[in-house]
Amino acid sequence: MSLKRSVRREFLKRGAALAGGLGLGAAKPAVGQTPAPGAFIKGTDERVAYGERSQYVTSTRIPHGGRPSPDAFGLDFHIAAPLQDSVGVITPSSLHYVGTTRGSFTPNIDPAEHRLMIHGMVERPLIFTVDELKRLPSVTRMHFIECAGNRANRRHTTVQETHGMTSCAEWTGVLLSTLLNEAGVQEGGNWIVAEGVEEVKGASSIPMSKAMDDCLVCYGMNGEAVRPQQGFPLRLLAPGFEGILSVKWLRRIKVVDQFYMTYSDYGHLRQDADDAALSLQIGPKSVITYPSGGQQLAGRGFYEIKGLAWSGGGAVARVEVSTDGGRNWTDAQIRGTAHRMAHTRFTLNWEWDGSESELMSRCTDELGSVQPMRAQITEYWTQRGQPGRVRGQDNSIQPWRVESDGSVHNAIT
Amino acid sequence: MSLKRSVRREFLKRGAALAGGLGLGAAKPAVGQTPAPGAFIKGTDERVAYGERSQYVTSTRIPHGGRPSPDAFGLDFHIAAPLQDSVGVITPSSLHYVGTTRGSFTPNIDPAEHRLMIHGMVERPLIFTVDELKRLPSVTRMHFIECAGNRANRRHTTVQETHGMTSCAEWTGVLLSTLLNEAGVQEGGNWIVAEGVEEVKGASSIPMSKAMDDCLVCYGMNGEAVRPQQGFPLRLLAPGFEGILSVKWLRRIKVVDQFYMTYSDYGHLRQDADDAALSLQIGPKSVITYPSGGQQLAGRGFYEIKGLAWSGGGAVARVEVSTDGGRNWTDAQIRGTAHRMAHTRFTLNWEWDGSESELMSRCTDELGSVQPMRAQITEYWTQRGQPGRVRGQDNSIQPWRVESDGSVHNAIT
What is the ipTM score, two decimals? Predict the structure, then answer.
């Protein structure tokens, strides 16, 4: 393949940068020696049962935007994923972002006692136990969830702060359409209200067209049960729509005739069509995770630029990368399968010459929608008499500035 | 889609079995009530940083085959994944099977001190730090790893005992070919010996054709760093080949001229071509995970049969399921994308009439190779004068017997 050849040529060209530093004599060879007996993790019954990560891996979630957003109990209820350390497209369940409508007290639900009720404008109201749901036809799909509040500003320093309120997992469950068809939606049942087990019930209103299209009632996530912070034992998933619609600790779906304003719908009662069109569905979006703000390049030479792209409109079709602040763009490589409404890993080989550079990525989805520059969004709202207003999803292009000393900074102005 | 319609018809047909039991009045409705304040998991800084699973989810790994195989330190070094609880295709990293050549003392490696050396019959011997590897072009791929010892026998009671020594993860790393091309393989360098950090060095010999095809040097697994039990910070992955060749705690790759017998190659010095052909690459394989041995059906009615299929020969092309001990076969549905050398989830809608049934699944891979019946394998070896001998991979079809009381049992005779 041509990649392999070009990579080899690039490495060989690099001279002192990387290849030179990798010469046999240049590094401390820890290889070839048997480690001392103390250098082992002792096996325990617990570690056999359910393994842990290395003590040297300290990547953690942080409060959204780097600033605590305490609830009435003084606890954070918006927690961002460490995208700067991400590899591949899966977010580990332990590091998946968390947003709750209010309160970070996670419901501690015994699944044997939990029920899901389907009622309202249906022919046959139904109640399912979790075990009964697991008997029904299932699907497994990769999907991202993103909080509508996942917006970058110039005060943010890292990609965890600018973009950490999105994550991606392998979700397993039953299509909501399977349950609604079984219940039998009555004529005029045009919306659903989905309610979870939260102090404020965490309800959301979703159009029936979306509910019957691709919404899932999930019991599985990344190969095991949905985690408590993600809605154990049941989470509604509304793929590609803003995260608040993916109701956690799901206990009730009521078929109704119209949009109902619930606690979690505070952002969804639209005054105008522009707002509505920009609100529910996440636009085409991407961000470079390496190199990103707060990281430090070791010196000039070869680097693989890595990032994540996603869209609520379907699969990512194309990602372009610029290393000169948007003057020139190069097609990045999509790594692995670009699943619909899922994080997609992109990469670009880059030879850094040591000069100041501005890195950007731009996503185009399968509908042909293209991620906008921040200036375009500003112009859009300025033309509508609301300069500087952030509304709907902010899916604008994120710039990172690489200084000549190798430090990387948020370049939003 | 026709599935939805047929599913609905099936549910409605079920009468007392499932649909009846789901009627609104029949269940204890825990829905609609706000839980007591004590029913919450209190948020802690630690849980914010790195989340945990529910206290009600107790699925764990067990010693392989259900019987401890203690090493010199009295610890188990073959640990099986709980496939009976699996959803989707990813195995959570905490539940990924573990096999080590000897000793369950997991190396506790500081990645900053770790090196990977490429040497032997190469033009330019190289040493890489982990950070240097992360600068190189990466790939992300779903791949299973399976231990050659993943064999079922009639004493096993659950799918964890019969098949738990296989797992699947999203792996991220550098193609080994990228590193070997950079080092420059000399004429006659036909094999590699890959060595890890273990008491016995955990070395394995791999043909150069495989090394240059699709082997990976992985630093990422399921979206985070490779776990210590899986080889942190670096694991060699030889997709589709038996697990012992996917060397953990990788520190050295030596290009050599021929097969070298190392500690981990004890099973690979072949006396004959039959053995060799059946040894390195995992054949087409599948197993039903639900219903499976030790599980209990709640009564007659609708069930979705769920299982996993995989092959070392490439992607799973087809899975058939029999509910009558192999007399009749029906095509199962493949759920999600059938990746090459990866677990693939299959399902089949099943209306259980309450009579004794024998469930089987049969995998065909993209090469057209078909998973054999146990009787075929027995006949193969009997014809070669070795009746009853288990050699190479055992990829035979696993039968589960559902008794009329709903209990499920291993049906190997």
Answer: 0.88
Please give, rounded to a whole number of angstroms, the shortest distance from the CA of A276 to a CA of chain B.
30
Q: Which of A3, A13, A87, A110 is most worth mutating to test chain B (most B CB atoms within 10 A of its CB)?
A: A87
Query: Secondary structure of chain B in the HEC alphabet?
Result: CHHHHHHHHHHHHCCCCCCHHHECCCCCCCCCCCCCHHHEECCCHHHHHCCCCCCCCCCCCEEHHHCCCECCCCCECEEECCHHHCCCCCCCHHHCCEECCCCCCEECCCHHHCEEEEEECECCCEEEEHHHHHCCCCEEEEEEEECCCCCCCCCCCCHHHHHCCEEEEEEEEEEHHHHHHHHCECCCCCEEEEEECCCCCCCEEEEHHHHHHCCEEEEEECCEECCHHHCCCCEEECCCECHHHCCCCEEEEEEECCCCCCHHHCCCCCCCHHHHHHHCECCCEEEEEECCCCCECCCCEEEEEEEEEECCCCCEEEEEEECECCCCCEECEEECCCCCCCCEEEEEEEEECCCCEEEEEEEEECCCCECCCHHHHHHHHHHCCCCCCCCCCCCCCCCEEECCCCEEEECCC
Q: Smallest CA–CA separation between B402 and chain A, in Å? A: 16
Nearest chain A Cα to B197, which residue?
A34
Rounded to the nearest angstrom, the gap between the alpha carbon of residue A320 and the centroid of all alpha carbons in its chain is: 19
Contact list in B for residue A224 (CB cut-off 8 A) is: 53, 57, 59, 85, 87, 92, 95
pLDDT digits 0-9 by tens, B32-64:
444 454 455 655 566 667 888 898 998 988 888
Q: Determine, for residues B40 and A107 on separate chains, whether the beta-carbon distance falls below 8 Å.
A: yes
Q: Do B105 and A73 touch (CB under 8 A)?
A: no
Q: Is the Cβ pair A53, B229 closer than 8 Å? A: no
pLDDT, tens digit, 9 for 90 and up, residues A50-78: 788 898 998 988 888 666 656 555 555 78
- Read off the pLDDT of residues A298-326 as tens digits, 9 standing for 90 and up: 999 999 999 999 999 999 999 999 999 99
Answer for the pair A152, A162: CB distance below 8 angstroms, yes or no.
Answer: yes
Domains of chain A, each with CATH number or no CATH = 93-269 (3.90.420.10), 285-410 (2.60.40.650)
| Nearest-neighbour CA in chain B from A375: distance (Å) | 32
A-chain CB neighbours of B87 within 8 Å are: 138, 140, 172, 219-220, 223-225
Could you report the per-residue pLDDT of A144-173, keeping only the tens digit for each?
999 988 989 899 999 999 999 999 999 999
CB contact under 8 A, B92 and A224: yes
Beta strand A115-120 with A250-256: parallel, antiparallel or unpaired?
parallel
